[in-house]
């Protein structure tokens, strides 16, 4: 069986095990026995079950980038529109896997930034954000450029905020998440471009309103 097919099978079987049993596999042995896989074959692709979890999150990111790569308009879009497209596409990908995402993050939403399975995703997203930031810096004078390391970390915080917002969102078609994406991206670029504080105030009002409505 081709390597990519084996990896895909392991990821699929892992999600199925979690959702049907309501628990994560307790060991590689248990997982392989239930999935009818050979342990040796498993270890040829993953070093642990934690690595499988991490690969799942990274696959959500890579699937998003693959979809964006097929969109001819994406490459020519502004940096703001590219980030908007990324978020909208990413959460469409997550929607296909919402049951697993809710299972994987249940009771741990306040620890999102510290979760080991998200480390690979964090690295990939920050590299993506850095590319957007550096492209923006190319349009600015040397003295007004922003440090990519600092701003990419801020972008990751924004990403985590939107992920938690989507998890908690119970609106039809996740329309509130769509609004949060638009407002947060608009705010991020307003800050980057040194716009007025009106945008920050607007975003703050939106977050406060949603916080009140969900409690």
Major beta sheet summary:
none
Mean pLDDT: 84
Assembly of the depicted chains: single chain
The SS-based structural class is mainly alpha
Radius of gyration, in angstroms, nearest whole number: 19 Å
How much of the residues is beta strand, in percent?
Answer: under 5%
Annotation field: number of helices: 11
Whole-Å distance between the termini? Answer: 50 Å
Order of helices and strands: HHHHHHHHHHH
Tally of DSSP β-strands: 0
Stretches where pLDDT is under 50 for at least 5 consecutive residues are none
Assign a percent range to the helix content: over 70%
Total domains:
2
Shape: globular
Summary?
The protein has 215 residues and is mainly α. The chain is built from eleven helices and no strands. The protein folds into two domains: 1-47, Orthogonal Bundle (Arc Repressor Mutant, subunit A), CATH 1.10.10; 50-213.
């Amino acid at each position: 069986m081709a390597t990519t097919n084996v990896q895909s099978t392991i990821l699929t079987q892992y999600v199925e095990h979690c959702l049907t049993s309501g628990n994560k596999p307790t060991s590689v042995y248990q997982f392989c026995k239930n999935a009818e896989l050979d342990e040796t074959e498993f270890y040829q692709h993953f070093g642990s079950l934690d690595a499988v979890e991490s690969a799942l999150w990274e696959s959500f990111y890579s699937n998003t980038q693959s979809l964006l790569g097929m969109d001819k308009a994406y490459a020519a879009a502004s940096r703001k529109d590219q980030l908007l497209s990324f978020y909208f596409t990413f959460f469409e990908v997550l929607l296909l896997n919402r049951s697993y995402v809710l299972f994987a993050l249940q009771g741990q939403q306040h620890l999102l930034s510290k979760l080991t399975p998200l480390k690979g995703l964090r690295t990939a997203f920050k590299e993506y954000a850095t590319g957007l930031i550096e492209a923006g810096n190319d349009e600015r004078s040397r003295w007004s450029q922003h440090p990519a390391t600092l701003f990419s970390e801020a972008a990751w915080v924004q990403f985590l905020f939107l992920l938690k917002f989507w998890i908690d969102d119970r609106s039809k078609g996740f329309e509130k998440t769509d609004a949060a994406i638009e407002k947060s991206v608009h705010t991020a670029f307003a800050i980057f471009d040194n716009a007025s504080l009106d945008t920050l105030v607007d975003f703050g009002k939106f977050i406060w309103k949603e916080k009140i409505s969900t409690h």
